[in-house]
């Protein structure tokens, strides 16, 4: 058998493929077994979910690669391979999201106009506050990935498909993801509580602003707001849940078609004004890194290799679903197969239409159609895919992210505190902008 797998214009070493697949499976299973770990931090707490364990374990393996035995030693080529696998594996998450959206479309249609329009705040708020600050701090193209959204899983998928996770934009969105995951809930809780105490905004407007598209951040913000207005706690939670549903469903597509193009355009317009004369944060590769990149680069995956990745990630999801959420493998298997079929069909349409629309759009459309209430067997499809836990879908994605992350640590180190400040400012912008817009409509609800 040949020792090299060909994919597009790039060669994939069979050893690297097997190593990454094996390590990812073990890490994901171990992370689900470890389970969530709550850490109290004064006024709040941080919960290290299995997805974070997976990311951290993969990162540690990459950082210690020179000290580990051969089976655990991650070369730069292996790390780039993990990044390429992550970009296509995220399509399965998009399929899962689309399956959820399809069944929720009638419910979304019943939501008031004000509740829908406040989603515009999620699209522009992060850019308005985050982009200028990023450029003033010397951050360059990473600013696009860090400020076009709050950087949850759909944001990873969108940036990965558009720019690749190896790009500066990919580093930016991953930095935003890590920052938001680790300290985002505490930050948004403190911010929401402070803004609520000012009595400037209606409690329901604050509740809608709390629906930022992240379950943990929404819960933290609602708790802080409800503590200020205990008589309206139930209403605040209701509107926050509806806004969060919009942000995590329709908001994904608005992010793709509106906020990402806006972020790219804002960077082009503002960088000459705010960043051109600023000393740039050095994120370019050193001479040694450039030399390494001559032999280590992100491979282009063929359709056959992408299909193999989707199947293997499906296996990881099934195992994680069993360990972490107690769902038997055979019960969840039909749901995983449906997601793989949706991804494959969407990817083939993407290729067949000469890439007119991003692959994530076609995959989303196919998945949404499968569970739309008027589609035959929609209820059965929804029931089968519903057995695949949402969090079990995310752990494999973050596993590959962790395995690919060490190669970018020099750039992260050079970005340092700057990217954390920018990420938190982007999150604040989403909450504040959505709240301001909701305030104009709150009296009509």
Automatic annotation (TrEMBL):
<dbReference type="Pfam" id="PF11299">
    <property type="entry name" value="DUF3100"/>
</dbReference>
<feature type="transmembrane region" description="Helical">
    <location>
        <begin position="332"/>
        <end position="350"/>
    </location>
</feature>
<feature type="transmembrane region" description="Helical">
    <location>
        <begin position="12"/>
        <end position="31"/>
    </location>
</feature>
<feature type="transmembrane region" description="Helical">
    <location>
        <begin position="120"/>
        <end position="139"/>
    </location>
</feature>
<feature type="transmembrane region" description="Helical">
    <location>
        <begin position="388"/>
        <end position="406"/>
    </location>
</feature>
<keyword id="KW-0472">Membrane</keyword>
<feature type="transmembrane region" description="Helical">
    <location>
        <begin position="356"/>
        <end position="376"/>
    </location>
</feature>
<feature type="transmembrane region" description="Helical">
    <location>
        <begin position="303"/>
        <end position="320"/>
    </location>
</feature>
<keyword id="KW-0812">Transmembrane</keyword>
<feature type="transmembrane region" description="Helical">
    <location>
        <begin position="418"/>
        <end position="442"/>
    </location>
</feature>
<keyword id="KW-1133">Transmembrane helix</keyword>
<feature type="transmembrane region" description="Helical">
    <location>
        <begin position="81"/>
        <end position="100"/>
    </location>
</feature>
<feature type="transmembrane region" description="Helical">
    <location>
        <begin position="174"/>
        <end position="198"/>
    </location>
</feature>
<dbReference type="InterPro" id="IPR021450">
    <property type="entry name" value="DUF3100"/>
</dbReference>
<protein>
    <submittedName>
        <fullName>DUF3100 domain-containing protein</fullName>
    </submittedName>
</protein>
<feature type="transmembrane region" description="Helical">
    <location>
        <begin position="204"/>
        <end position="227"/>
    </location>
</feature>
<feature type="transmembrane region" description="Helical">
    <location>
        <begin position="37"/>
        <end position="61"/>
    </location>
</feature>
<feature type="transmembrane region" description="Helical">
    <location>
        <begin position="239"/>
        <end position="264"/>
    </location>
</feature>
